[in-house]
Amino acid sequence: MSATVVTPNPGYRGVLRVPGMPAIFLAHTVSMLGTVAAQVALSILVFERTGSPLLSALVLVCSFLPYALGGILLSSIADRFPARRVLVGCDLLSGLWIGVMLIPGLPVAALLGLLLATGIIAPVFAGARAASLAQLLPGDLFPIGRSLLRAISQVTVLTGFALGAVAVAAIGPTRLLALDVVSFVASAVLIGVGTPYTPAGERRRNTVRDSWDGLRYLFTTKRLRRLILLTWVAPAFSSVPDGLAVAYTAQAGTVAAAAGALFTGYATGTVLGEFVAARFPPSTRRRLVVPLLLMTQLPAIAFFFTPSIPVAAVLLAVSGAGYAFNQGVDPLILQAVDPSYRGRLFTVQTSGLMAIQGVSIALAGVVGTFLAPNLTIAAAGILGTATTLLIARQALERTTRGAVTSRPG
Fold first, then answer.
1. What percent helix, strand, coil does the chain show, rounded to 5?
2. What are phi and psi of 315, to 5 degrees?
3. Residues 144 and 257 both lie in one domain
4. Are residues 13 and 94 in the same domain?
5. Which of helix, strand or coil describes residue 353?
6. Structural domain containing residue 245
7. How far apart are CA 131 and CA 135, in angstroms?
8. pLDDT tens digit string along 122-132?
9. Looking at 156, 185, 207, which one is the last position of a domain?
10. Are 175 and 22 a contacting pair, CB within 8 Å?
11. Rounded to an integer, what distance in angstroms lies between the CA atom of residue 40 and that of residue 163?
């Protein structure tokens, strides 16, 4: 269990001074860069072999779709075994699957199947990592640690896609996939050598039954269920502009490449929001939850007026900055969950977040075929504002209700 003293070093610097944390975050950076670059490489490789834009696009679908399956069936792995062992095992297994992709002449169906397999592993890794942060970090630094993971993810997604395209042109997709294997092995070594041991949880039944037991616990605990839904619903609505970015640039009368400014704006805002919020004391972050939630949704309503691309990018940056609301919600989740269910909780939270954003983007594309893109985005902003405020009112009232008696961490 982590210490309960208040750290004298707030912010990301305080997190990185905790033993084992530099290795965890460096491993996250390395594996994220490799994974994103590999998605680019695999998309190009599939297109080169088949000439099919649809099959090439399925690479991204196969990257996100398995999250739900892994979260439902395998979430208990994050609680049943020591976190370090789970993290190293997930990295090595993911590296193995990517390595098999390097076999010459492997059918496209096999490539996509292997990608699905790595996607099933991903939420288990994320859940075990979050559970280990809850054990290794003092309670007041846990939300800062998760914030740093999110900031690193946004930065590496931006740089990974940009560098991936350049790397494919320079060395080819096959060699870039080989580098992804190296990134997973490097991540496993960093975690295995550089992080402290954390004990395993209780094994009651088999993995699948324990996972179902965790789902039942999470969704029958009212306060916990509402908090988790809050972390899903806000990004589900705020991700609609991502699905319609290209269509919106066409509506605004600019080239499709300008959609990159919208993606960059959202990611930049997210990183800045996380960085600024991490400097606030816990009480301030808690009070800012609702204002930050509103920031995630309200900018989309301004799309009703069809803003120019630069203005739209700024609006999405404001929306991305609001995602720092998680820094105020994470401590409440940690208080509300029994420690023996932490790994399952964070695995399900990660898998649900990825799945609901994928569904949201797909639905936005469907609605956008019947309604102008700007009106679809604005409607999502209106519905998102109403829905998040409703869930926030239920989840945040009387914050001590439903909390377990042990201190978080």
1. 80, 0, 20
2. -60, -45
3. no
4. yes
5. helix
6. 221-409
7. 7
8. 889 999 999 89
9. 207
10. no
11. 9
